[in-house]
Structures are given as structure tokens and as C-alpha cells.
Amino acid sequence: MTIKAVQVLSEADVLVVPKAKENGHSTALNIVKSHVDLGGKEIVEVCFPMHKVYNGGENNKELTEAWNKAADIIRQKLQTGKVAFPTLGDPALYSTGFYVHATLLEHDPDMDIELVPGITAMSNCSAVTATPLCLGGELLSVIPATFTDDRLEKVLEGFDTIVLMKVHRVMDRMVELLDRLNLLSRAVLVEKCGQPDQRIFTDLRQAAAEDIHYFSTIIVRKKS
Ligand SMILES: C[S@@+](CC[C@H](N)C(=O)[O-])C[C@H]1O[C@@H](n2cnc3c(N)ncnc32)[C@H](O)[C@@H]1O
User: Fold this and answer.
1) Ligand 1 pocket, 86 CB below 6 A?
2) Ligand 1 centroid to 95 CA: how many Å?
3) 13, 59, 84, 135: which has the highest count of C-beta atoms within 10 A?
4) Which atom of ligand 1 has the smallest separation from the CA of 190?
């Protein structure tokens, strides 16, 4: 977490925290807990089910309801104090944070919301594996591994470094694709980066053979 994030979260009276399953725990809250004293703060957990978001298209009803619920709670709690919404990594990168932000602005376009940048998973994965993302004139692309092979292949061919996110359920497909493009030896996977049980796999076949966690990211860097 950044100093700024710790400051903002420490000053908040209420934390509205995202979690993926109704009966699960919030990873964002667990991370916050280790850096911020939660004593005296109200914690409200909101479940955001995992569904694809189609920008400009029709979104999943459950998910839209979750964004509205979070926005309603935030608006209500703001009447008595400061509210913060911690999210994993940076809110600008495939994050619930920006959907909640947009939902709040739909109700009140002048609402005063401060976005606090975070450390992306790819930055952390780059650091723990000492893999630069971009040097000199290189180009970087970030893409969810759940996209079609066709799209992935174009990106893998057209960029110098490629960050593959959300890889955990499609590992066999990733191994096959990277192998076909002769990029398997250029790939590294980090699972639960920055957490006590973090694992680094330089052999993606081994990662594919295991039940790796949703918090897994692959960096493919073509140049050594
Ligand atoms: C919904 S996206 C959130 C990305 C986040 N906003 C960021 O700034 O990196 C979830 C994906 O981020 C990656 N991720 C999140 N936390 C991670 C971690 N601790 N280690 C490795 N990858 C992680 C994984 O690819 C995961 O599937």
C-alpha cells in the first residue's frame, strides 16, 4: 500500500470493502488491516460477483445491483463522515473501483471523489521477478487471458512485453498458445504476489498442473 492510501484509509470513518463471495472474506480488507488501525471504524462488506463486464453493452444484473448497492451505502454513510472504498492494486486497471465511481457520478455528477492510485499487480510481479515491463523503445500490452486466442495471439506477436491477467482458469490454453508462439521460455507467472504465500513459476507447465489462485499474473518479456 502507498503512504497516501494509508493516510486516506486511516482518516475514513467508514470503509466499504469489496469481496467476491457472499460468505467469503475481503482480500482488500485483509491487506488494509495489516497497515491501518481499524479501531472505531465501521466496516461494510459488499459482494461483487465475478461476471464479465461489457463496456458499452448490457451488463450482468447482479453486478449492476452490486454497484448500485455500494453507491447507495457510500452516499448514505457520507452524511455522517468520511468514506473510503479500498480496492486491490490500482482502481484504473480492471477494478470494481471505477464502476462504483461511475455509479456514484450517475447519481451526482458533481460528487467530490478522490481517486488514489495503487500499486498494480503487474508492477509488483515485475519487481519480485526483476522483469522490466518496458525499456527504451519497447511496447507493453496488458490483456486478460480470458480473451479469445485470436486477440491474444495478435497482442503476443505485436508487443515486446505482454502482461496476461486472470490466467488461473485458462492455464492449459496459455501454455499451448505460448508454446506455439515460442514464448513459453520467456514467461514467468507470479501467484499471490506480495502475500506471505507468494509463488513464482518460471515453468508454466508446472503452474498449469497445479490449482493456482485467481491472484496470478503472467509476464511475457521477449527480450532478455
Ligand atoms: C480484477 S483484476 C484486478 C487488477 C488490479 N486492479 C491491479 O491493479 O492489478 C484481478 C487480476 O489481477 C491480478 N492480480 C491481482 N492481485 C494479484 C496478486 N497479488 N498477484 C498476482 N496477480 C494478481 C490477477 O491477474 C487477477 O486475476
Assistant:
1) no
2) 9
3) 84
4) 21
Residue 189 CB less than 6 A away from ligand 1: no
Burial-class residue 155 by CB neighbours within 10 Å (0-12, 13-18, 19+): middle
Cα within 13 Å of Cα(75), Cβ side: 17
Which pLDDT score is estimated for 62?
81
Give the whole-number percent of the chain exceeding pLDDT 90.
86
Contact 107, 136 (CB under 8 A): no
pTM over 0.90: yes
- Residue 53 makes CB contacts below 8 A (sequence gap 6+) with 59, 60, 63, 99
**Ligand 1 neighbour 120 (Cβ under 6 A):** yes
Residues across the chain:
224
